[in-house]
Amino acid sequence: MSIATINPTTGATDRMFEAHSDAEVDKRLSASAGAFDAFRRSSFVDRARWMVAAAELLEGELPDIAQVLTTEMGKTFAAAKGEVAKSARTMRYFAQHAAGMLADEPVPEAGLSARVAYRPLGPVLAVMPWNFPLWQVVRFAAPALMAGNVGLLKHASNVPQTALLIEDVFRRAGFPEGVFQTLLVDASRVSRLVSDQRVKAVTLTGSDLAGASVASEAGRSLKKSVLELGGSDPFLVMPSADLQRAVATGVEARIQNNGQSCIAAKRFIIHDDVYEQFEQAMVEAMERLTVGDPMEPATELGPLATEQGRSTVQAQVYDARAKGARVLCGGEPIGGAGFFYPPTVLAGLDARMRVFGEEVFGPVAMLYRVGDAGEALALANSSVFGLGASIWTEDPVEQALFQEELEAGMVFTNAPVASMPELPFGGVKRSGYGRELGLHGLREFCGVKTLWSA
Ligand code: NAP
């Protein structure tokens, strides 16, 4: 795969980049290891000052940065601006709280001197996806750097401008040379990076296949890994739910980021009593969406990020239709320039169809009808993924049942699944392991050091 910006709105190649040579990668790895030696001894006060400066740069240059995001992967300009603002907020959060969250913890029951300390691991390799090209990197980098680690970014090959821009922001913010570097390399170079002795840990956000590959290399090299992988999140609607709000939120949760979010609602599991109403309202709402140029303020749905991504969605929908699924709206790619795909709703689905088991990374809502809470739960848990789940019911017994029994890393009640700096984010099953954000994310790339003195 070439390292290039191909604007998904036009399909045209905007910029091509030369991949870093082996010598350049080697130089950057050594710079990273060298930088860690001093950076791990820097104070929280200094790190926080640099992190806040980085947040200020994002805020000060917000529209320009947002435009790069939209150009490289097609999200609406409004969504891109939101992503930049959220990234800055998250930098500020960890700048403010990391020292407290990583303070030594006394364990008096083990002895008066006993304490647990959290210490950085070293250079951490981050293999990142294109779908939230700034946010995914910041949610790794802000906690990891505040903990005293140094970062090496291998970004997705289709967002090189964002990758270079992030490196530039950290440098201009004042972080010492080598503390955060981008490696312009493609996926075939990742295994060698993971096994390099200068790299101490790896985090990957992306597909389960890429995750499995990185985890095996990390395993062979006995290195810590964190995996944030795909999802096929269920959105459960029971009879007591506020249906109007559930439909409006469901549409938004499905089409956010042009349908390409790991925590998008993908499988709508609807109780029989409200199914017909839900189906009708969902199809009407999806058909009303404005599809078009993501830079236009009225646009609600832009293109998919890559031609390959659109072909995959198309193949999944055709497969379902050929096996008897009902296509209630959309279902055919939009012709002309760019990688546009229409809002699509599928019903009448079963386990023979690819969409039943695979993640669908595009604006395709899949509707399922169930008779009771038990059936809803069984269908929701039948997925190999377990990232988030959104449940819609006013019944406290159903709420408790779903919150307890859903196989997911995150369950949101009467709300869409969301990420926020204060809360751990991550999944179970083939959605990965380890956590980003919150206290748990901050401590992922820390060694736990037990200190005890006689
Ligand atoms: P992807 O193809 O797995 O790529 C993600 C990153 O991994 C890219 O940098 C890619 O490099 C690299 N990569 C691909 N194959 C690899 C391999 N075999 N070994 C090592 N690295 C490899 O995923 P994507 O299409 O960019 O992103 C979409 C996926 O990410 C979806 O499944 C989505 O659900 C998931 N995601 C998960 C979360 C979460 O927090 N759980 C968040 C966002 C996205 P190249 O670009 O050079 O191929």
Description:
The structure is a single chain. Helix 12 links the parallel strand 13 and strand 14 (364-370). Strands 12-13-14-11-10-16-17 form a seven-stranded mixed β-sheet, with helices on both faces. A six-stranded mixed β-sheet has the order 7-6-5-8-9-19, sandwiched between helices. The chain is built from 15 helices and 20 strands. Helix 3 runs antiparallel to helix 6 and helix 9 (243-255) packs across helix 10 (272-288). With 454 residues, the chain is α/β, with parallel strands linked by helices. 42% of the residues lie in helices and 19% in strands. The chain has two domains: 3-229 and 431-451, Aldehyde Dehydrogenase, Chain A, domain 1 (3-Layer(aba) Sandwich), CATH 3.40.605; 233-421, Aldehyde Dehydrogenase, Chain A, domain 2. The relative contact order is 0.14. The protein has helices at residues 22-39, 44-60, 62-73, 77-101, 135-146, 160-172, 190-195, 208-220, 243-255, 272-288, 307-322, 354-357, 373-381, 396-405, 438-444; strands at residues 3-6, 13-17, 105-106, 115-120, 123-127, 150-154, 180-182, 201-205, 224-228, 233-237, 265-271, 326-329, 344-347, 364-370, 385-386, 388-392, 410-413, 428-429, 432-433, 446-451. The structure holds NADP nicotinamide-adenine-dinucleotide phosphate. The site of NADP nicotinamide-adenine-dinucleotide phosphate has 32 residues, from strand 8 and helix 8.
CATH topology heading of the largest domain:
Aldehyde Dehydrogenase, Chain A, domain 1
Count every helix, treating DSSP H or I runs of 4 or more residues as helices: 15
- Seen as an oligomer or otherwise, the chain set is single chain
Termini Cα gap: 58 Å
- Overall pLDDT level: 98
- What name goes with the CATH superfamily of the largest domain? Aldehyde Dehydrogenase, Chain A, domain 1
- Based on Cα principal axes, name the global outline: globular
Structural class: alpha/beta
Q: Which ions and ligands are bound to the chains?
A: NADP nicotinamide-adenine-dinucleotide phosphate
**Stretches with pLDDT under 50, minimum 5 residues:** none
**Hey, roughly how much beta strand do the residues contain?**
15-25%
Strand order of the largest sheet: 12-13-14-11-10-16-17
The helicity comes to: 40-55%
